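Structure ticket #2291
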Amino acid sequence: MIDNINKNLRALDTLGQPTAHWDTLIIYIMSKKLNNVTNREWEEHKNNLNHFPNLKNYTKYLSNRADLLETLHDNKTLNNNYINTKTYESNKNTNYLTNTHFKPEKIASCPMCSQNHLLFNCQSFRNLNVDSRIKKASESNVCMNCLRPGHTDKRCKLSHCKYCKSKHNTLLHRESQIDLKPKDNIALSTNIITNTKGKNKQALIILSTAMARVTDVNGRLHSARLLLDNGSTSNFITQDLCRKLGLNTRSTISSVSDASERAYGACIYVRTIAVDGTVCVRLLASKNKVAPIKTTTIPRLELCGALLGTRLYLKVCNSLTNVFSHCLFWCDSTIVLGWLSTQPSNLNQFVQNRVNEIQECTLDQTWRYVPSRSNPADLASRGVKADCISASTLWWSGPQFLHERTIHFPPSPNTPQTLPETSLHTVTHCNSKSINVLSDLIHKMSSFTKLNRVFAYILRFIYNCRSPNNKNKSYITSNELISAYNRIIYISQQEMFPEEYNHLKHNQILPKKNRLISLSPFIDSNNLIRVGGRLQNSNYSYDVKHPVLLCSKHHLTKILFLKYHKSLFHAGPQLLLANVRLTYWPLGGRNLAKQTVRNCVRCTRFKAQPIQVVMSN
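Resolution: structure written out below.
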Protein backbone atom coordinates (compact mmCIF):
# COMPACT_ATOMS: atom_id res chain seq x y z
CA MET A 1 0.00 0.00 0.00
CA ILE A 2 2.86 2.39 0.79
CA ASP A 3 4.51 1.68 -2.56
CA ASN A 4 1.28 2.34 -4.47
CA ILE A 5 0.64 5.58 -2.58
CA ASN A 6 4.17 6.82 -3.26
CA LYS A 7 3.96 5.87 -6.94
CA ASN A 8 0.68 7.71 -7.42
CA LEU A 9 1.90 10.77 -5.53
CA ARG A 10 5.01 10.92 -7.71
CA ALA A 11 2.84 10.75 -10.81
CA LEU A 12 0.55 13.52 -9.54
CA ASP A 13 3.55 15.61 -8.59
CA THR A 14 4.87 15.22 -12.15
CA LEU A 15 1.59 16.64 -13.43
CA GLY A 16 2.02 19.70 -11.20
CA GLN A 17 -0.49 18.80 -8.47
CA PRO A 18 0.14 20.24 -4.95
CA THR A 19 0.73 16.86 -3.32
CA ALA A 20 2.86 18.39 -0.55
CA HIS A 21 -0.32 19.70 1.13
CA TRP A 22 -2.27 16.45 0.97
CA ASP A 23 -0.76 14.68 4.01
CA THR A 24 -3.90 14.82 6.17
CA LEU A 25 -6.12 13.59 3.34
CA ILE A 26 -3.76 10.75 2.39
CA ILE A 27 -3.41 9.65 6.03
CA TYR A 28 -7.19 9.56 6.36
CA ILE A 29 -7.59 7.48 3.17
CA MET A 30 -4.89 5.01 4.22
CA SER A 31 -6.29 4.64 7.73
CA LYS A 32 -9.64 3.53 6.30
CA LYS A 33 -7.92 0.49 4.78
CA LEU A 34 -6.37 -0.72 8.08
CA ASN A 35 -7.87 -2.78 10.86
CA ASN A 36 -8.97 -1.42 14.21
CA VAL A 37 -5.92 -2.69 16.11
CA THR A 38 -3.47 -0.91 13.82
CA ASN A 39 -5.51 2.28 13.91
CA ARG A 40 -5.59 2.17 17.73
CA GLU A 41 -1.82 1.70 17.83
CA TRP A 42 -1.45 4.68 15.47
CA GLU A 43 -3.56 6.88 17.73
CA GLU A 44 -1.32 5.97 20.68
CA HIS A 45 1.78 6.59 18.62
CA LYS A 46 0.44 9.94 17.36
CA ASN A 47 -0.11 11.17 20.93
CA ASN A 48 3.59 10.64 21.68
CA LEU A 49 4.68 12.97 18.86
CA ASN A 50 5.66 16.56 19.60
CA HIS A 51 4.27 17.89 16.32
CA PHE A 52 1.33 17.30 14.03
CA PRO A 53 1.93 14.01 12.18
CA ASN A 54 2.72 14.12 8.47
CA LEU A 55 2.72 11.46 5.76
CA LYS A 56 6.37 10.61 6.37
CA ASN A 57 5.67 9.80 10.05
CA TYR A 58 2.67 7.72 9.07
CA THR A 59 4.53 5.64 6.43
CA LYS A 60 7.40 5.08 8.87
CA TYR A 61 4.94 3.84 11.47
CA LEU A 62 3.28 1.50 8.96
CA SER A 63 6.66 0.13 7.84
CA ASN A 64 7.68 -0.65 11.41
CA ARG A 65 4.27 -2.14 12.09
CA ALA A 66 4.51 -4.36 8.99
CA ASP A 67 7.99 -5.51 10.01
CA LEU A 68 6.71 -6.41 13.47
CA LEU A 69 3.76 -8.37 12.08
CA GLU A 70 5.99 -10.24 9.62
CA THR A 71 8.38 -11.16 12.43
CA LEU A 72 5.55 -12.39 14.60
CA HIS A 73 4.20 -14.45 11.71
CA ASP A 74 7.60 -16.11 11.10
CA ASN A 75 8.10 -16.91 14.77
CA LYS A 76 4.58 -18.26 14.94
CA THR A 77 5.38 -20.73 12.17
CA LEU A 78 8.64 -21.83 13.81
CA ASN A 79 7.13 -22.19 17.25
CA ASN A 80 3.56 -23.53 17.22
CA ASN A 81 3.46 -23.55 20.97
CA TYR A 82 3.24 -19.79 20.95
CA ILE A 83 -0.35 -19.90 19.69
CA ASN A 84 -1.64 -22.03 22.59
CA THR A 85 0.24 -20.18 25.29
CA LYS A 86 -1.94 -17.81 27.29
CA THR A 87 0.48 -16.79 30.03
CA TYR A 88 3.99 -15.46 29.98
CA GLU A 89 5.22 -17.07 33.22
CA SER A 90 7.30 -19.94 31.74
CA ASN A 91 10.94 -19.47 30.81
CA LYS A 92 10.28 -20.40 27.17
CA ASN A 93 7.61 -17.80 26.79
CA THR A 94 9.72 -15.30 28.69
CA ASN A 95 12.58 -15.84 26.26
CA TYR A 96 10.16 -15.49 23.36
CA LEU A 97 8.76 -12.26 24.78
CA THR A 98 12.28 -10.99 25.18
CA ASN A 99 13.11 -11.92 21.60
CA THR A 100 10.00 -10.29 20.21
CA HIS A 101 10.81 -7.19 22.20
CA PHE A 102 14.28 -6.77 20.72
CA LYS A 103 13.72 -8.32 17.33
CA PRO A 104 12.10 -5.26 15.65
CA GLU A 105 15.17 -3.24 16.58
CA LYS A 106 17.40 -5.93 15.07
CA ILE A 107 15.28 -6.00 11.91
CA ALA A 108 15.17 -2.24 11.62
CA SER A 109 18.95 -1.91 11.68
CA CYS A 110 20.49 -1.56 8.24
CA PRO A 111 22.99 -4.37 7.47
CA MET A 112 25.11 -1.95 5.46
CA CYS A 113 25.39 1.20 7.59
CA SER A 114 23.93 -0.10 10.91
CA GLN A 115 21.47 2.80 11.03
CA ASN A 116 17.85 2.59 12.18
CA HIS A 117 16.27 1.99 8.73
CA LEU A 118 15.74 -0.84 6.28
CA LEU A 119 18.11 -1.75 3.49
CA PHE A 120 16.06 -0.23 0.64
CA ASN A 121 16.04 3.15 2.45
CA CYS A 122 19.81 3.21 2.82
CA GLN A 123 21.42 5.89 0.68
CA SER A 124 24.72 4.03 0.59
CA PHE A 125 22.95 0.98 -0.78
CA ARG A 126 21.21 3.08 -3.46
CA ASN A 127 24.52 4.59 -4.59
CA LEU A 128 25.83 1.12 -5.54
CA ASN A 129 25.37 -0.28 -9.02
CA VAL A 130 22.86 -3.04 -9.67
CA ASP A 131 25.33 -5.93 -9.44
CA SER A 132 26.72 -4.65 -6.14
CA ARG A 133 23.20 -4.25 -4.75
CA ILE A 134 22.31 -7.83 -5.65
CA LYS A 135 25.49 -9.12 -4.02
CA LYS A 136 24.95 -7.06 -0.88
CA ALA A 137 21.30 -8.18 -0.59
CA SER A 138 22.32 -11.83 -0.88
CA GLU A 139 24.97 -11.43 1.82
CA SER A 140 22.49 -9.70 4.13
CA ASN A 141 19.96 -12.59 3.95
CA VAL A 142 17.04 -10.31 3.09
CA CYS A 143 14.12 -10.92 0.77
CA MET A 144 15.14 -10.13 -2.82
CA ASN A 145 11.64 -8.81 -3.52
CA CYS A 146 11.06 -6.33 -0.68
CA LEU A 147 14.64 -6.13 0.81
CA ARG A 148 13.27 -6.90 4.28
CA PRO A 149 14.61 -9.63 6.58
CA GLY A 150 12.65 -12.50 8.04
CA HIS A 151 11.38 -14.26 4.89
CA THR A 152 12.32 -15.24 1.35
CA ASP A 153 11.14 -13.87 -1.97
CA LYS A 154 8.92 -16.95 -2.56
CA ARG A 155 6.86 -16.15 0.54
CA CYS A 156 6.86 -12.37 0.01
CA LYS A 157 3.40 -10.87 -0.48
CA LEU A 158 4.50 -7.43 -1.68
CA SER A 159 4.44 -6.14 -5.26
CA HIS A 160 6.95 -7.18 -7.90
CA CYS A 161 9.36 -5.09 -10.01
CA LYS A 162 7.55 -2.28 -11.80
CA TYR A 163 9.78 -2.55 -14.87
CA CYS A 164 9.83 -6.25 -15.77
CA LYS A 165 7.10 -7.59 -13.41
CA SER A 166 9.52 -10.21 -12.08
CA LYS A 167 9.83 -11.31 -8.45
CA HIS A 168 12.61 -8.95 -7.39
CA ASN A 169 12.93 -5.43 -6.08
CA THR A 170 12.98 -2.51 -8.47
CA LEU A 171 16.40 -1.47 -7.13
CA LEU A 172 17.74 -4.85 -8.27
CA HIS A 173 16.44 -4.60 -11.83
CA ARG A 174 18.95 -5.08 -14.64
CA GLU A 175 18.32 -3.27 -17.91
CA SER A 176 18.17 -5.65 -20.88
CA GLN A 177 19.65 -2.99 -23.13
CA ILE A 178 22.72 -0.88 -22.70
CA ASP A 179 21.93 2.34 -20.86
CA LEU A 180 22.43 5.50 -22.84
CA LYS A 181 24.77 8.02 -21.24
CA PRO A 182 24.40 10.48 -19.80
CA LYS A 183 21.23 9.21 -18.09
CA ASP A 184 19.97 12.72 -17.37
CA ASN A 185 19.36 13.23 -21.10
CA ILE A 186 16.75 10.45 -21.42
CA ALA A 187 13.27 10.13 -19.91
CA LEU A 188 11.19 7.02 -20.45
CA SER A 189 7.48 7.09 -21.21
CA THR A 190 4.88 6.13 -18.66
CA ASN A 191 1.10 6.02 -18.24
CA ILE A 192 -0.67 8.10 -15.61
CA ILE A 193 -4.36 7.75 -14.74
CA THR A 194 -5.77 11.20 -14.08
CA ASN A 195 -9.32 10.22 -13.09
CA THR A 196 -9.86 7.09 -11.07
CA LYS A 197 -13.48 7.87 -10.14
CA GLY A 198 -16.30 6.53 -12.25
CA LYS A 199 -16.31 3.95 -14.96
CA ASN A 200 -14.44 6.01 -17.57
CA LYS A 201 -10.79 6.36 -16.65
CA GLN A 202 -8.76 8.97 -18.48
CA ALA A 203 -5.10 8.18 -18.97
CA LEU A 204 -2.30 10.55 -19.93
CA ILE A 205 0.80 9.25 -21.68
CA ILE A 206 4.07 10.99 -20.88
CA LEU A 207 6.25 10.42 -23.94
CA SER A 208 9.93 9.61 -23.92
CA THR A 209 12.44 12.40 -24.51
CA ALA A 210 16.13 12.49 -25.33
CA MET A 211 18.80 15.16 -25.80
CA ALA A 212 20.56 15.38 -29.14
CA ARG A 213 23.18 17.53 -30.85
CA VAL A 214 22.00 18.95 -34.18
CA THR A 215 24.17 20.57 -36.87
CA ASP A 216 22.95 23.80 -38.53
CA VAL A 217 23.65 24.97 -42.08
CA ASN A 218 27.03 26.42 -40.98
CA GLY A 219 28.20 23.24 -39.27
CA ARG A 220 27.68 24.44 -35.70
CA LEU A 221 26.16 22.14 -33.08
CA HIS A 222 23.02 22.99 -31.14
CA SER A 223 21.36 21.12 -28.29
CA ALA A 224 17.80 19.97 -28.88
CA ARG A 225 15.39 17.74 -27.02
CA LEU A 226 13.64 15.03 -28.99
CA LEU A 227 10.07 13.96 -28.22
CA LEU A 228 9.82 10.27 -29.14
CA ASP A 229 6.41 8.94 -30.18
CA ASN A 230 6.34 5.48 -31.71
CA GLY A 231 2.77 5.96 -32.93
CA SER A 232 3.44 9.19 -34.83
CA THR A 233 3.61 9.19 -38.64
CA SER A 234 4.96 12.74 -39.03
CA ASN A 235 8.03 14.66 -37.91
CA PHE A 236 7.75 18.22 -36.64
CA ILE A 237 10.25 20.87 -35.61
CA THR A 238 9.68 24.10 -33.70
CA GLN A 239 10.11 27.50 -35.29
CA ASP A 240 12.78 28.50 -32.77
CA LEU A 241 14.94 25.52 -33.70
CA CYS A 242 14.36 26.27 -37.39
CA ARG A 243 15.75 29.76 -36.90
CA LYS A 244 18.74 28.44 -34.95
CA LEU A 245 19.55 25.89 -37.64
CA GLY A 246 19.04 28.37 -40.48
CA LEU A 247 16.11 26.44 -41.94
CA ASN A 248 13.77 29.39 -42.33
CA THR A 249 11.09 28.54 -44.88
CA ARG A 250 7.97 30.18 -46.24
CA SER A 251 4.97 27.87 -46.03
CA THR A 252 1.51 28.08 -47.52
CA ILE A 253 -1.46 25.76 -47.31
CA SER A 254 -3.82 24.68 -50.07
CA SER A 255 -7.28 23.13 -49.74
CA VAL A 256 -8.63 21.19 -52.74
CA SER A 257 -12.19 19.83 -52.92
CA ASP A 258 -14.23 17.79 -55.37
CA ALA A 259 -17.45 15.75 -55.51
CA SER A 260 -19.09 12.99 -57.50
CA GLU A 261 -22.41 11.18 -57.39
CA ARG A 262 -21.06 8.72 -54.80
CA ALA A 263 -18.99 10.90 -52.43
CA TYR A 264 -17.29 14.22 -51.90
CA GLY A 265 -13.89 14.92 -50.34
CA ALA A 266 -11.17 17.45 -49.62
CA CYS A 267 -7.37 17.42 -49.28
CA ILE A 268 -4.98 19.74 -47.46
CA TYR A 269 -1.47 20.28 -48.90
CA VAL A 270 1.45 22.15 -47.33
CA ARG A 271 3.75 23.99 -49.72
CA THR A 272 7.14 25.20 -48.46
CA ILE A 273 9.86 27.19 -50.18
CA ALA A 274 13.35 26.77 -48.72
CA VAL A 275 16.10 29.37 -48.64
CA ASP A 276 17.68 27.96 -51.80
CA GLY A 277 14.35 28.14 -53.66
CA THR A 278 13.44 24.47 -53.41
CA VAL A 279 9.67 23.91 -53.44
CA CYS A 280 8.20 20.98 -51.54
CA VAL A 281 4.50 20.04 -51.57
CA ARG A 282 3.17 17.25 -49.36
CA LEU A 283 -0.25 15.91 -48.40
CA LEU A 284 -1.07 16.87 -44.81
CA ALA A 285 -4.65 15.70 -44.28
CA SER A 286 -7.66 14.50 -46.24
CA LYS A 287 -11.28 13.64 -45.56
CA ASN A 288 -14.23 12.40 -47.57
CA LYS A 289 -17.89 11.61 -46.97
CA VAL A 290 -20.44 9.44 -48.72
CA ALA A 291 -23.07 11.31 -50.70
CA PRO A 292 -26.58 11.43 -49.18
CA ILE A 293 -28.98 8.63 -50.02
CA LYS A 294 -31.47 11.18 -51.29
CA THR A 295 -30.55 12.16 -54.82
CA THR A 296 -29.22 15.68 -55.12
CA THR A 297 -27.49 17.80 -57.74
CA ILE A 298 -23.77 17.75 -58.46
CA PRO A 299 -23.36 21.51 -57.71
CA ARG A 300 -24.80 20.94 -54.24
CA LEU A 301 -22.36 18.08 -53.65
CA GLU A 302 -19.51 20.27 -54.91
CA LEU A 303 -20.59 22.93 -52.41
CA CYS A 304 -20.61 20.32 -49.62
CA GLY A 305 -17.08 19.34 -50.66
CA ALA A 306 -15.96 22.98 -50.49
CA LEU A 307 -17.49 23.26 -47.01
CA LEU A 308 -15.73 20.04 -45.95
CA GLY A 309 -12.41 21.48 -47.17
CA THR A 310 -13.02 24.71 -45.25
CA ARG A 311 -13.75 22.87 -41.99
CA LEU A 312 -10.72 20.63 -42.50
CA TYR A 313 -8.58 23.74 -43.03
CA LEU A 314 -9.79 25.23 -39.72
CA LYS A 315 -9.12 21.92 -37.94
CA VAL A 316 -5.56 21.80 -39.27
CA CYS A 317 -4.85 25.44 -38.36
CA ASN A 318 -6.13 24.93 -34.81
CA SER A 319 -4.13 21.72 -34.37
CA LEU A 320 -0.76 22.99 -35.59
CA THR A 321 1.33 25.69 -33.96
CA ASN A 322 2.84 26.71 -37.29
CA VAL A 323 1.52 29.94 -38.81
CA PHE A 324 0.97 29.77 -42.56
CA SER A 325 1.63 32.88 -44.60
CA HIS A 326 -1.25 32.31 -47.00
CA CYS A 327 -3.96 29.83 -47.91
CA LEU A 328 -5.42 28.96 -51.30
CA PHE A 329 -8.70 27.15 -51.88
CA TRP A 330 -9.26 25.21 -55.09
CA CYS A 331 -12.44 23.89 -56.70
CA ASP A 332 -13.24 22.61 -60.21
CA SER A 333 -16.90 23.72 -60.18
CA THR A 334 -17.59 27.10 -61.76
CA ILE A 335 -21.08 27.13 -60.24
CA VAL A 336 -19.64 26.84 -56.72
CA LEU A 337 -17.12 29.59 -57.47
CA GLY A 338 -20.03 31.73 -58.70
CA TRP A 339 -21.99 31.05 -55.50
CA LEU A 340 -19.00 31.99 -53.34
CA SER A 341 -18.72 35.35 -55.13
CA THR A 342 -22.45 36.09 -54.58
CA GLN A 343 -24.20 37.59 -51.60
CA PRO A 344 -25.66 34.75 -49.48
CA SER A 345 -29.00 36.55 -49.25
CA ASN A 346 -29.47 36.07 -53.00
CA LEU A 347 -29.33 32.27 -52.74
CA ASN A 348 -31.72 29.57 -51.61
CA GLN A 349 -31.64 28.35 -48.03
CA PHE A 350 -29.54 25.21 -48.58
CA VAL A 351 -26.88 27.02 -50.58
CA GLN A 352 -27.11 30.19 -48.48
CA ASN A 353 -26.24 28.46 -45.19
CA ARG A 354 -23.17 26.74 -46.60
CA VAL A 355 -21.93 29.73 -48.61
CA ASN A 356 -22.31 31.94 -45.55
CA GLU A 357 -20.18 29.59 -43.42
CA ILE A 358 -17.51 29.27 -46.12
CA GLN A 359 -17.30 33.04 -46.61
CA GLU A 360 -16.99 33.65 -42.87
CA CYS A 361 -14.19 31.08 -42.47
CA THR A 362 -12.28 32.11 -45.64
CA LEU A 363 -12.83 35.85 -45.41
CA ASP A 364 -9.28 36.90 -46.34
CA GLN A 365 -8.44 33.89 -48.51
CA THR A 366 -8.69 33.23 -52.26
CA TRP A 367 -10.79 30.69 -54.13
CA ARG A 368 -9.31 29.50 -57.43
CA TYR A 369 -10.27 27.17 -60.24
CA VAL A 370 -8.41 23.89 -60.70
CA PRO A 371 -8.94 21.62 -63.73
CA SER A 372 -10.50 18.25 -63.00
CA ARG A 373 -7.49 16.34 -64.35
CA SER A 374 -5.22 18.20 -61.87
CA ASN A 375 -7.58 17.89 -58.90
CA PRO A 376 -6.25 15.36 -56.34
CA ALA A 377 -9.56 15.46 -54.45
CA ASP A 378 -11.09 13.69 -57.45
CA LEU A 379 -9.38 10.52 -56.21
CA ALA A 380 -11.07 10.91 -52.82
CA SER A 381 -14.53 11.48 -54.33
CA ARG A 382 -14.48 8.82 -57.07
CA GLY A 383 -12.28 6.26 -55.32
CA VAL A 384 -9.06 4.56 -56.35
CA LYS A 385 -7.59 1.12 -55.78
CA ALA A 386 -5.19 0.61 -52.89
CA ASP A 387 -2.33 -0.59 -55.11
CA CYS A 388 -2.63 2.54 -57.26
CA ILE A 389 -2.83 5.16 -54.51
CA SER A 390 0.70 4.45 -53.27
CA ALA A 391 2.21 5.33 -56.67
CA SER A 392 -0.02 8.34 -57.34
CA THR A 393 2.10 11.49 -57.48
CA LEU A 394 -1.00 13.64 -57.81
CA TRP A 395 -2.35 12.36 -54.47
CA TRP A 396 0.80 12.63 -52.37
CA SER A 397 2.37 15.74 -53.92
CA GLY A 398 -0.60 17.67 -55.27
CA PRO A 399 -1.05 19.27 -58.69
CA GLN A 400 2.02 20.11 -60.74
CA PHE A 401 1.54 23.90 -60.80
CA LEU A 402 2.02 24.02 -57.00
CA HIS A 403 5.60 22.78 -57.44
CA GLU A 404 6.61 25.93 -59.30
CA ARG A 405 8.25 28.71 -57.31
CA THR A 406 5.74 31.20 -58.75
CA ILE A 407 2.32 29.61 -59.08
CA HIS A 408 0.80 30.02 -62.52
CA PHE A 409 -2.90 29.79 -61.87
CA PRO A 410 -4.85 27.67 -64.38
CA PRO A 411 -7.20 29.70 -66.59
CA SER A 412 -10.72 29.73 -65.27
CA PRO A 413 -13.67 29.18 -67.60
CA ASN A 414 -16.44 31.72 -67.73
CA THR A 415 -18.82 31.67 -64.80
CA PRO A 416 -22.44 30.94 -65.85
CA GLN A 417 -24.50 34.11 -66.13
CA THR A 418 -27.53 32.45 -64.57
CA LEU A 419 -26.68 30.57 -61.40
CA PRO A 420 -29.00 27.88 -60.07
CA GLU A 421 -30.37 27.90 -56.52
CA THR A 422 -31.03 31.66 -56.53
CA SER A 423 -33.87 33.15 -54.51
CA LEU A 424 -37.14 34.09 -56.16
CA HIS A 425 -37.20 37.66 -54.93
CA THR A 426 -33.80 38.47 -56.48
CA VAL A 427 -34.68 37.31 -60.00
CA THR A 428 -36.58 40.45 -60.95
CA HIS A 429 -36.90 42.39 -64.16
CA CYS A 430 -37.06 45.83 -62.57
CA ASN A 431 -34.73 48.35 -64.12
CA SER A 432 -34.35 50.38 -60.94
CA LYS A 433 -31.66 49.28 -58.49
CA SER A 434 -33.56 50.95 -55.67
CA ILE A 435 -36.39 48.42 -56.06
CA ASN A 436 -33.93 45.59 -55.40
CA VAL A 437 -32.81 47.26 -52.18
CA LEU A 438 -36.36 47.88 -51.05
CA SER A 439 -37.30 44.33 -52.03
CA ASP A 440 -34.61 42.96 -49.72
CA LEU A 441 -36.04 45.13 -46.96
CA ILE A 442 -39.54 43.68 -47.51
CA HIS A 443 -38.24 40.12 -47.24
CA LYS A 444 -36.43 40.90 -43.99
CA MET A 445 -39.52 42.23 -42.18
CA SER A 446 -41.94 40.01 -40.28
CA SER A 447 -44.54 42.69 -39.39
CA PHE A 448 -46.59 44.52 -42.01
CA THR A 449 -47.26 47.49 -39.72
CA LYS A 450 -43.57 47.97 -39.01
CA LEU A 451 -42.74 47.56 -42.70
CA ASN A 452 -45.25 50.27 -43.65
CA ARG A 453 -43.81 52.77 -41.16
CA VAL A 454 -40.22 52.01 -42.24
CA PHE A 455 -41.14 52.74 -45.86
CA ALA A 456 -42.84 55.94 -44.76
CA TYR A 457 -39.62 57.14 -43.12
CA ILE A 458 -37.63 56.15 -46.21
CA LEU A 459 -39.92 58.20 -48.46
CA ARG A 460 -39.69 61.15 -46.05
CA PHE A 461 -35.89 60.89 -46.12
CA ILE A 462 -35.96 61.00 -49.92
CA TYR A 463 -38.26 64.01 -49.83
CA ASN A 464 -36.04 65.88 -47.34
CA CYS A 465 -32.95 65.19 -49.45
CA ARG A 466 -34.65 66.57 -52.55
CA SER A 467 -36.13 69.57 -50.71
CA PRO A 468 -33.50 70.77 -48.20
CA ASN A 469 -35.31 74.11 -47.76
CA ASN A 470 -38.66 72.50 -46.93
CA LYS A 471 -37.86 69.51 -44.73
CA ASN A 472 -40.62 67.61 -43.00
CA LYS A 473 -39.74 66.89 -39.33
CA SER A 474 -43.18 66.24 -37.84
CA TYR A 475 -44.85 62.93 -37.04
CA ILE A 476 -45.70 60.41 -39.72
CA THR A 477 -48.99 61.40 -41.35
CA SER A 478 -51.69 59.20 -42.83
CA ASN A 479 -50.84 60.42 -46.35
CA GLU A 480 -47.26 59.27 -45.89
CA LEU A 481 -48.44 55.86 -44.69
CA ILE A 482 -50.74 55.54 -47.72
CA SER A 483 -47.88 56.47 -50.07
CA ALA A 484 -45.62 53.94 -48.39
CA TYR A 485 -48.37 51.30 -48.63
CA ASN A 486 -48.79 51.89 -52.37
CA ARG A 487 -45.03 51.66 -52.86
CA ILE A 488 -44.85 48.32 -51.03
CA ILE A 489 -47.70 46.84 -53.10
CA TYR A 490 -46.12 48.17 -56.29
CA ILE A 491 -42.77 46.46 -55.54
CA SER A 492 -44.41 43.13 -54.71
CA GLN A 493 -46.44 43.18 -57.94
CA GLN A 494 -43.33 44.05 -59.94
CA GLU A 495 -41.64 40.95 -58.55
CA MET A 496 -44.50 38.50 -59.06
CA PHE A 497 -46.21 39.88 -62.21
CA PRO A 498 -43.50 41.62 -64.28
CA GLU A 499 -44.73 40.46 -67.72
CA GLU A 500 -48.37 41.13 -66.95
CA TYR A 501 -47.53 44.61 -65.68
CA ASN A 502 -45.69 45.48 -68.90
CA HIS A 503 -48.62 44.30 -71.02
CA LEU A 504 -51.16 46.26 -69.01
CA LYS A 505 -48.96 49.36 -68.88
CA HIS A 506 -48.82 49.47 -72.69
CA ASN A 507 -52.54 48.66 -73.04
CA GLN A 508 -51.80 45.24 -74.50
CA ILE A 509 -54.01 42.17 -74.18
CA LEU A 510 -52.69 39.37 -72.00
CA PRO A 511 -51.95 36.01 -73.61
CA LYS A 512 -54.81 33.52 -73.66
CA LYS A 513 -53.03 31.07 -71.34
CA ASN A 514 -52.04 33.71 -68.81
CA ARG A 515 -53.15 33.03 -65.25
CA LEU A 516 -54.66 36.54 -64.87
CA ILE A 517 -56.79 36.55 -68.01
CA SER A 518 -59.95 35.49 -66.15
CA LEU A 519 -59.61 38.31 -63.60
CA SER A 520 -59.75 41.20 -66.15
CA PRO A 521 -56.87 43.05 -64.44
CA PHE A 522 -56.13 46.74 -64.97
CA ILE A 523 -53.77 49.39 -63.58
CA ASP A 524 -55.24 52.12 -61.40
CA SER A 525 -54.06 55.68 -60.79
CA ASN A 526 -51.51 54.50 -58.21
CA ASN A 527 -49.88 52.11 -60.74
CA LEU A 528 -51.29 49.09 -58.90
CA ILE A 529 -52.79 46.05 -60.60
CA ARG A 530 -56.41 45.55 -59.56
CA VAL A 531 -59.02 42.94 -60.38
CA GLY A 532 -61.81 43.99 -62.79
CA GLY A 533 -65.35 42.65 -62.84
CA ARG A 534 -68.98 43.66 -63.13
CA LEU A 535 -69.42 45.40 -59.78
CA GLN A 536 -68.79 48.94 -60.95
CA ASN A 537 -72.40 50.04 -60.36
CA SER A 538 -72.68 48.41 -56.91
CA ASN A 539 -72.71 50.30 -53.64
CA TYR A 540 -69.55 48.62 -52.34
CA SER A 541 -66.33 50.54 -51.77
CA TYR A 542 -63.68 50.77 -54.45
CA ASP A 543 -61.41 48.27 -52.71
CA VAL A 544 -64.21 45.70 -52.52
CA LYS A 545 -65.22 46.13 -56.17
CA HIS A 546 -61.64 46.11 -57.43
CA PRO A 547 -59.31 44.44 -54.88
CA VAL A 548 -55.53 44.69 -55.19
CA LEU A 549 -53.95 41.67 -56.87
CA LEU A 550 -51.37 39.73 -54.81
CA CYS A 551 -49.57 36.40 -55.04
CA SER A 552 -49.68 34.06 -52.05
CA LYS A 553 -46.06 32.97 -52.67
CA HIS A 554 -44.71 36.45 -51.93
CA HIS A 555 -43.44 37.30 -48.45
CA LEU A 556 -45.58 40.43 -48.27
CA THR A 557 -48.79 38.41 -48.71
CA LYS A 558 -47.75 36.06 -45.90
CA ILE A 559 -47.14 38.81 -43.34
CA LEU A 560 -50.34 40.53 -44.49
CA PHE A 561 -52.35 37.36 -43.75
CA LEU A 562 -50.63 37.12 -40.38
CA LYS A 563 -51.63 40.71 -39.58
CA TYR A 564 -55.30 40.01 -40.41
CA HIS A 565 -55.20 36.74 -38.44
CA LYS A 566 -54.08 38.53 -35.27
CA SER A 567 -56.39 41.54 -35.73
CA LEU A 568 -59.37 39.16 -36.06
CA PHE A 569 -58.41 37.50 -32.77
CA HIS A 570 -56.95 34.38 -34.44
CA ALA A 571 -59.83 33.76 -36.82
CA GLY A 572 -60.19 30.53 -38.77
CA PRO A 573 -59.23 30.08 -42.43
CA GLN A 574 -62.64 30.96 -43.92
CA LEU A 575 -63.14 34.12 -41.86
CA LEU A 576 -59.54 35.15 -42.47
CA LEU A 577 -59.81 34.73 -46.24
CA ALA A 578 -63.18 36.53 -46.39
CA ASN A 579 -61.78 39.62 -44.62
CA VAL A 580 -58.63 39.69 -46.72
CA ARG A 581 -60.67 39.57 -49.95
CA LEU A 582 -62.45 42.76 -48.95
CA THR A 583 -59.26 44.62 -49.92
CA TYR A 584 -56.98 42.17 -51.73
CA TRP A 585 -57.34 39.29 -54.14
CA PRO A 586 -54.56 36.80 -53.30
CA LEU A 587 -53.86 34.06 -55.83
CA GLY A 588 -53.91 30.79 -53.88
CA GLY A 589 -55.29 32.60 -50.86
CA ARG A 590 -57.27 29.63 -49.51
CA ASN A 591 -54.16 27.51 -49.02
CA LEU A 592 -52.27 30.45 -47.51
CA ALA A 593 -55.11 31.06 -45.02
CA LYS A 594 -55.00 27.43 -43.90
CA GLN A 595 -51.23 27.56 -43.63
CA THR A 596 -51.34 30.75 -41.55
CA VAL A 597 -53.79 29.24 -39.06
CA ARG A 598 -51.91 25.95 -38.95
CA ASN A 599 -48.57 27.66 -38.23
CA CYS A 600 -49.99 29.84 -35.46
CA VAL A 601 -48.60 28.58 -32.15
CA ARG A 602 -51.37 30.04 -30.03
CA CYS A 603 -54.12 28.52 -32.20
CA THR A 604 -52.44 25.13 -32.11
CA ARG A 605 -52.11 25.26 -28.33
CA PHE A 606 -55.77 26.13 -27.75
CA LYS A 607 -56.99 23.50 -30.20
CA ALA A 608 -55.25 20.73 -28.31
CA GLN A 609 -57.60 17.95 -27.24
CA PRO A 610 -57.19 16.16 -23.90
CA ILE A 611 -56.33 12.50 -24.00
CA GLN A 612 -59.34 10.27 -23.67
CA VAL A 613 -58.48 7.49 -21.26
CA VAL A 614 -59.87 4.14 -22.37
CA MET A 615 -61.99 2.49 -19.72
CA SER A 616 -60.47 -0.68 -18.40
CA ASN A 617 -62.11 -4.09 -18.62
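Closing remark: Residues 55-78 form the longest helix (24 residues).
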